[in-house]
Design goal:
Distance between the termini: 51 Å
Number of helices: 16
Helix content: 25-40%
Strand content: 15-25%
Radius of gyration: 28 Å
Number of strands: 16
Largest sheet: 8 strands, mixed
CATH topology of the domain at 12-130 and 307-341: BirA Bifunctional Protein, domain 2
Strand order of the largest sheet: 1-5-6-11-10-9-7-8
């Protein structure tokens, strides 16, 4: 019989057991943190009706959708967790308590061109707070606290949550009569770290931004100092634009309350070049960077949006949320050896039977599991050496040998696989 080559599709990640254990630990850390902040679990379908899923999609997004027909149904795989959330809130509005705080960790699918570290199937870890009609700005200050807690628990200390407000940027462009070119301008100024100030000026002139406006834009993005100093300098620009003034006020409020949530000063900073979701976000925006590894790009991003479910309901449902792309983050950290997969098994004890009757070995395993210990029984008929080798390869910390002598005496040999120390232990003391 001809054999089929075992291949995995490009853009889909499969891990060896030790890597999967580490991945699951990271996912569990994120989930437990979300729960500690009172976010409720949500699990939406991977497959949705295309007309529902694509209600607000278009352009490049729609091109990336995995779409197919099953019978008379036009179906699509979800491409993010925000659109399904929109549908869910609109559908279940009458049964939800607002503000609605949810988290969801799940796979999403995008048929984009694969690159190293970019996947077509990947985990997103999202939290959102949704308001009914309105949502207090204090929520925008709490989410960075969640981000700070997660990355601290993951073992990072040198990271920065960069924060801005879209109203500031929008108001600036309105005041300079450059609203129509806002998207192009944002894309250009976003490159300042890579190409430098002079090249930015040159590119702004190429798209015919007036000289006076270019000077104002450069003055704006050149603002430096501490977060408080930047906010004061924004006020002194004397831009008489209602949207701009509102954005500065909101940014000042969020920064003030981030400190109340005890986020250290060296872990956040106002960054006036952060734009995020050119058409989506309407207020506060976040991006998080590991300072020693800037090549990773943003490892957590999000922000405030005006109306989550506008395509599904007339009710105004403002919200704020953040997302961690766990698959890409894990891949990059693993590739750079910043995390190390060491556990090859989740078993804490391996029970090695040296008798045919497995009654006692199974009894021991059941007792250990009841007490909360991960216990595995070696069930293959191999020599004792092979059984110990199995435990050693999987780095199982303890082994219990169950032979005739042990059964007769009621005392079993417990071996520490790291130190080699052995001790006799009675069943009652397991």
């Amino acid at each position: 019989m001809a054999k089929t080559e075992p291949r995995t599709l490009s853009g889909f990640m499969e891990l060896l057991p030790d890597e999967q254990i580490l991945f699951n630990q990271m996912k569990r850390t994120i989930e437990e943190t979300y729960q500690k902040y009172g976010f409720l679990p949500l699990d939406t379908p991977v497959i949705e009706l295309s007309e529902v899923l694509l209600a607000k999609a278009g352009g490049e997004t729609e091109k990336q959708i995995y779409r197919f027909n099953k019978g008379d149904n036009d179906l699509s795989l979800r491409f993010d967790l925000t659109v399904p959330l929109s549908k869910y809130v609109a559908k279940n509005y009458g049964n939800l308590n607002f503000p609605f705080r949810r988290y969801q960790i799940g796979k999403v699918y995008r048929g984009e061109r694969t690159q190293k570290g970019r996947f077509r199937e990947f985990y997103q870890c999202n939290i959102d707070v949704i308001g009914d009609g309105e949502l207090d700005l204090i929520n925008d200050a709490e989410l960075p606290s969640v981000i700070y807690t997660i990355f601290t628990k993951l073992g990072f200390s040198n990271f920065t949550i960069r924060i801005n407000n879209r109203k500031i940027l929008n108001g600036l462009f309105e005041s300079l009569n450059q609203k129509e070119k806002a998207v192009e301008i944002l894309r250009i100024i976003d490159k300042i770290d890579k190409i430098g100030k002079d090249a930015v000026i040159e590119e702004l002139e190429k798209i015919e931004v007036e000289k006076e406006a270019v000077e104002k834009i450069i003055e704006f993005i050149s603002i430096n100092g501490t977060s408080d100093e930047k906010i004061e300098k924004l006020k002194k620009l004397n831009i008489e634009n209602e949207t701009y003034i509102k954005g500065v006020e909101e940014l000042e409020y969020v920064v003030k309350h981030m400190r109340m949530f005890e986020i250290p000063e060296n872990n956040f900073n106002v960054d006036l070049t952060i734009a995020r979701g050119l058409d989506y976000y309407t207020g506060t925006v976040y991006e998080t960077f590991l300072n020693d590894y800037r090549e990773l790009g943003s490892v957590c991003s999000g922000g405030r949006y005006e109306n989550l479910a506008e395509y599904y309901t007339d009710k105004k449902l403002p919200g704020v949320g953040v997302s961690i792309g766990l698959t890409r983050l894990f891949y990059k950290l693993n590739e750079m050896n910043l995390i190390k997969a060491s556990k090859k098994s989740i078993s804490e004890v391996l029970i090695i039977p040296m008798v045919e009757d497995l009654t006692i070995p199974i009894k021991i395993a059941n007792k250990l599991r009841t007490k909360g210990t991960n216990a595995e029984i070696y069930l293959n008929n191999k020599k004792l050496k092979a059984k110990f080798k199995y435990a050693d390869k999987l780095k199982i910390p303890y082994v219990i040998v169950v032979g005739e002598d042990e059964i007769q005496s009621g005392k079993y040999t417990l071996k520490n696989m790291e130190t080699g120390e052995e001790q006799k232990i009675e069943f009652e003391n397991l």
